[in-house]
Amino acid sequence: MSSTVCVLRRHEIAWHPMETLVVDHPLVAHKLTALRDVRTDSPTFRRLADELVTLLAYEATRDVRVTDVTVETPVAPAHGVRLAKPHPLVVPILRAGLGMLDGMTRLLPTAEVGFLGMIRNESTLQAETYATRLPDDLSGRQCFVVDPMLATGGTLAAAVQFLFERGAVDVTAICLLAAPEGLAHMDKVFANSGKPIRVVTAALDERLNDSGYIVPGLGDAGDRLYGVV
Ligand code: URA
Question: From the CB of 179, is ligand 1 less than 6 Å away?
Answer without folding.
Answer: no
